[in-house]
Structure formats: C-alpha cells, structure tokens
Specification:
Strands 1-2-3-7-6-5-4 form a seven-stranded mixed sheet, sandwiched between helices. The chain has a five-stranded antiparallel sheet with strand order 11-10-9-8-12, with no helix packed on it. 27% of the residues lie in helices and 35% in strands. It is built from five helices and twelve strands. The protein folds into two domains: 3-192, BirA Bifunctional Protein, domain 2, CATH 3.30.930; 199-242, Roll (SH3 type barrels). The termini are far apart. It is of the alpha+beta class. The chain has helices at 12-22, 72-89, 149-153, 159-178, 182-192; strands at residues 3-9, 30-36, 55-67, 94-97, 101-104, 107-119, 122-132, 199-204, 209-217, 223-226, 232-235, 240-242. The structure holds biotin. Biotin binds at residues 11-13, 36, 39-42, 45, 47, 56-58, 101, 111-113, 129-131.
C-alpha cells in the first residue's frame, strides 16, 4: 500500500491529481490529510471537516477498459465500498443517496468526489476523494443533516484502521469495474440506494415539488424517476433534490 500522509493540505484530490501529473504513481496510491484547508465537495461546494477527527483522503485508480459512458460504475463501486466498511462498524441503517452520498439513519456521514481523466472515449484514471465523518461531534448548523460515526454509535473509532479497511475494500470493488462486473455492481447499488422504488417527494431546480419513484440510474449516471402517469424522466445532479435535504 502506498499511503502518503499529510499534516495539512488544501485538498487531497488536488494534491494527488498534481502528483500524478508529475510522476508515475503506483495504482491505488492514497493521499490522506489530517487537515484540509480547502476541501472540495460536489458541484463546487466545499467539504469542511474538523482536524484530526475524521478521514479525508484520495485514491488514484487507473482503468483498463472503461468506456466514458460507463463512468458511473466508478461511483457505484466507491459508494458500495464505503457502505461495506461502515456495515462492519456500526449498526445504523446505511444507504447511498444518489449519486454517492452515504447516509446513516438519514444523516450524511460521507461524501465522495470523483475526478476522472478521459482519453478519447475511455476513462484512463480517476482521483477518488472521500470524506468520512468519524469522531467529530459538533457540526456547523448550516450544512444540513450531517452526522458522524461517533455521534451515531457513541463509540470512538481509530481512523487509521478504518482507512486501511477502506483502501482494501475500495481496491476490491474497483476491480469489479475493471472486470466489467457491471450487473453485480448495479444490483448491489440499487439494493443500498436510498428511496429506491418507493414514493418520495422531490424538488426541481425551480423549487417545484413533485412526487415520484426512483426506478434506476441511467448509463450516463442520471437519476431515473417515474411518475404516477407512467412516464419517467432522467435528472442530473443540478436538476433534482429530495425535499428537505
Ligand atoms: C461531497 O459530498 O460533496 C463530496 C465531498 C468529498 C470530500 C473529500 S475529502 C477528501 C477529498 N479531497 C477533497 O478536497 N474532497 C474530497
């Protein structure tokens, strides 16, 4: 395992991305930081995490034969790996909120930011950034329903041990992508997907609320929502959110 341990850095994703450009890194190299000064989240948001309490790390993964259209399988594999490790550590109900937020008892405890390099019609490598709230107990009130493993279970966790298990499990699930075990990944992803196949209230970008049912995720990673009148529509991340989240 090639693990680069950093005390403080702007963002482990930025750091690893830059390093991978400068030198040939071993596949599955990880950069982990005790503190990020400019942690990045999805859609230009930031990821704030108290120093020394949580996990903030990025992993480099190369792909042999992954078509650009199949890049959502990376998201599936990563979310499933995180869920798998968490299941071994807490008893709370765990779900993947599309595309790849990890919820425990409905609270976000982990976020994933995947940044990929495309070569022609293939994904050549991804920098997979993961933030996991481990032992933090106080969160800003303006970041929604978030929690940590400690808050949910009352137990203090060893971040180093969690990291090793996460790397091993990520490697395993990312091999599913390289071996094109796409059906297995999809099946497992839907099994763990929040509000899959059940009526839920959504809100579009204009703030209009509507009732629908998630029936899947399209090949290009959009959320497929079916309506009462038997029609369905695909939404990207900017176009839809759950009401109240
Ligand atoms: C999200 O839910 O918006 C994604 C959050 C991803 C945060 C992680 S922390 C480690 C890595 N470095 C970053 O700057 N972001 C990711």
């Amino acid at each position: 395992m090639n693990i680069i341990k950093l005390n403080a850095i702007d963002s482990t994703n930025l750091y690893l991305k830059k390093l991978a450009k400068e030198m040939k890194l071993e596949n599955y190299t990880v950069a982990v930081a005790r503190h990020q000064t400019a942690g990045r989240g999805q859609m230009g948001t930031s990821w704030v995490s108290e120093s020394n309490k949580n996990l903030t790390f990025s992993l480099l993964c190369r792909f042999n034969n992954l078509k650009v259209e199949g890049q959502f399988y990376i998201s599936m594999a990563v979310a499933l790996a995180v869920i798998d490790v968490l299941k071994k550590n807490v008893k709370n109900s765990l779900h993947i909120k599309w595309p790849n937020d990890i919820l425990a008892d409905g609270y976000k405890i982990s976020g994933i930011l995947i940044e990929s390099v495309l070569k022609k019609s293939f994904v050549s490598q991804s920098i997979i950034g993961i933030g996991l709230n481990v032992n933090q107990q106080i969160f800003p009130t303006n970041i929604g329903k978030v929690s940590s493993l400690k808050l949910l279970s009352g137990t203090e966790f060893k971040t180093d041990e969690l990291l090793i298990d996460l790397i091993k499990t990520l490697t395993l699930f990312l091999e599913y992508v390289n071996c094109q075990k796409y059906n297995e990944l999809s099946k497992l992803y839907y099994k763990n997907l929040y509000k899959f196949n059940e009526p839920a209230m959504f809100e579009d970008a204009k703030g209009i609320q509507f009732l629908g049912k998630i029936t899947g995720v399209s090949q290009d990673g959009r959320l497929v929502v079916a309506f009462k009148n038997k029609t369905s529509r695909k939404f990207n991340l900017k176009e839809i959110k759950f009401v109240g989240s």
